[in-house]
Amino acid sequence: MVAGVGGAAQAAASAPFMAHQALYELKLLKSRGSASVNSASGRILYNFTGSACEGYTSDFRQVSELETGEGKNTLSDLRSTSWEDGAGKSYRFKIDTRMNDGDASVIDGVAERDGDHVTVKLKQPVAKTFTLDGATVFPTEQIHRIVAAAREGKSVLELKVYDGSDTGEKVYNTLTVIGAAIPGDRAAAEPDASTSSDAMKPLTRWPVTVSYYDESAKSNSGEQTPVYAMSFELYENGVSRSLVLDYNDFVIGGTMGKFNVKDSKPCK
């Protein structure tokens, strides 16, 4: 069942999300099946600012290089900027993707919650307006819901999520599995820049795995394979550490190399 927006807003008020910058160093963890990914490297730089009253701004850049068995290298550069209303009612996004030396692929649009549906207006790649199920949530709201569910001791959460990715028209059915809470005074098996931060040490975190399924894809077997899955430890203030990105054919790990707390204005 999808929780109400009000419940997520109350959870956010009790533990405001932290404005921060995080740098994650990427490396190949494993290659599966017929995939011939020999190595992977790269970085994710993530900036998050804002509050429940002024909305949340996210700037994300992921640069990664994959080396395949044929000696070919694929360099991808993904840049994403978004703003999301504090109550999860409005979402503006622009995503710029570039592969090797090719031209950039741009997705630009806005989504507005209106009664029992969400209206999306795309500017790029093509001008188009369409509607989504009103139960669909945006990315920051998704994290709010996960934190709220974790606080309530829930281990599973299902949500429809729209983030503007792919062609700007895709909705993901997500399945989130939440592990047992990790108290702030428990030492991390693999410390990083977040676990050594004084601002983070008192905070509870949870091991979380989110699987993303293409809502429009039909499975003949009844068992649908996720498009990708993300595992991470999620702090109660919205910060994520110890990333694992599973793309089915290969898995990439992301270790937080740098972490900075940013100034933010508290809600009045």
Mean pLDDT rating: 89
* Overall domain count: 1
What helical percentage do the residues reach?
Answer: under 10%
Provide the β-strand percentage band. Answer: over 45%
Tell me the total number of β-strands.
14
Rg (CA only):
18 Å
Tell me the number of helical segments per DSSP (H or I, 4 or more residues long): 2
Q: Whole-Å distance between the termini?
A: 32 Å
The computed structural class is: mainly beta
Strand order of the largest sheet: 8-7-6-5-4-3-2-1-14-13-12-11-10-9
Poorly predicted tracts of residues: 1-13
Q: Profile the largest sheet.
A: 14 strands, antiparallel
Shape: globular
Oligomer: single chain
N-to-C SSE string, H for helix and E for strand? HEEEEEEEEHEEEEEE
Report on this model:
This protein has 268 residues and is mainly β. It has one domain (24-260). Helices cover 9% and strands 51% of the residues. It is built from 2 helices and 14 strands; from the N terminus they run αββββββββαββββββ. A 14-stranded antiparallel β-sheet has the order 8-7-6-5-4-3-2-1-14-13-12-11-10-9, with helices on one face. Helix 1 (5-14) packs across helix 2. The protein is globular.
